Each structure stands twice: as C-alpha cells, then as structure tokens.
C-alpha cells in the first residue's frame, strides 16, 4: 500500500507508513534548508580573514562557498551552527553569535 502524505493522519497504521532513514534520490540536501536548526550563527570578520581557506574543508555542511580562490559569506541556509569553523580559523576571523 502506498500512501500519499496528504492521506496520512492519526488513524494511519504504522505498518502502512514508509520505512524511515532511506534516501530515495541523490543530492536532495542541496534543496533542503537545514539552517533552520541553527541556534548559533557564525560571523566572519573580513578585516581578520586572510583567505587561507582552512575553514572550508572543516565545515561539515559545505556552508563556506569559495569563488575564484576566495571564500564568501556563510551559506546560512545550510549552516547548522556547529562552530567547527571557529576552531579551524587560525586568525580568529570567525566568531559565533547566539541566535539566527
């Protein structure tokens, strides 16, 4: 039995639901904004940034875009606010602020 989301309600039996934790098509995370989960937000101080790009490979969400060899502002649509980039920056150019 294949149910559509609109047909699922509190009377739906668990046996009729799709199994969870399955990826049905590749690369869906690019279209799914996970930044809503963030409780802390990274802030870049461009005065301190030396464009070493050390923060880029450490970001688990690929939220630090690079164009023409220079990093850009954070992709806050996908950044979950983990703060790993703060630890990776040797120049103290990245800090975290509370909230979104």
Automatic annotation (TrEMBL):
User: Which residues, by range, are in coiled-coil regions?
Assistant: none
Which Gene3D superfamilies does its entry note?
3.30.70.20
Top-level division of the source organism's lineage: Bacteria
User: What's in the keyword line of the UniProt record?
Assistant: 4Fe-4S, Iron, Iron-sulfur, Metal-binding, Pyruvate, Repeat
Does the keyword field hold Methyltransferase? no
The residue ranges of the 4Fe-4S ferredoxin-type domain are 40-69, 70-99
Single GO molecular function: oxidoreductase activity, acting on the aldehyde or oxo group of donors, iron-sulfur protein as acceptor
Q: Where is the chain membrane-spanning? A: none
Under the heading InterPro entries, the entry gives: 4Fe4S_Fe-S-bd (IPR017896), 4Fe4S_Fe_S_CS (IPR017900), PorD_KorD (IPR011898)
SUPFAM superfamilies from the xrefs? 4Fe-4S ferredoxins (SSF54862)
Required co-factors: [4Fe-4S] cluster
Tell me what this protein is called.
Answer: Pyruvate ferredoxin oxidoreductase delta subunit
Protein's organism: Hespellia stercorisuis DSM 15480
